[in-house]
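Example with several molecule types.
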Amino acid sequence: MHKLPKLPYKYDALEPHIDVETMKVHHGKHHRAYTDKLNEVLAKYPNLQKQSPSDLLRNLVSLPVDDADRALLRNHGGGYLNHALFWDVLGPEKAIDEKLVADVEQTYGSVETFRDRFTTQSTRHFGSGWTWLVRDGDGKLDLYTLPNQDSPYTLGHTPILMLDLWEHAYYLKYQNRRADYLKAFWNVVDWDAVERRYRDARR
Ligand code: MN3
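Resulting structure tokens for the full complex:
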């Protein structure tokens, strides 16, 4: 069954932008809870246990489960995978990749404009959810927010860069200052990881 992924860096690696206490609770409690609840649902469906979380979400509407369990898989499968992707695109190192920059510039004009749009959409999103940069079915970049733990995989899109907008992602350090969290985020984006996801997106 699915295991809580290990962080690819230490809990304090993203200081001072994302603090050690937030990381401990976010990874050790919240992400663990999504993992446990996903496994709890899957325990009822041995034939679904071999599917990767991204396949479960890609196939969400057609899975042979009842509606209550479909909702649980959407929320906890999404919560499980969204956080696994998020830890991977964060890191203490940051250097934007040139190939990705070329595509971002072609789509958004400049990296600065892209960052502004990403931040604006994150600011406008009401309540819990995530901001997503994805490659759509045609391989084009698209930017949007989704509520709760909804996953771009269920839309047939592949996530490239994502930001957790749930209060648990920033409340200990930033309280109601979501804007400061959105600003701090850009200091801990691991662009190498983003570029890897971008390159592999069609697989
Ligand atoms: Mn979260």
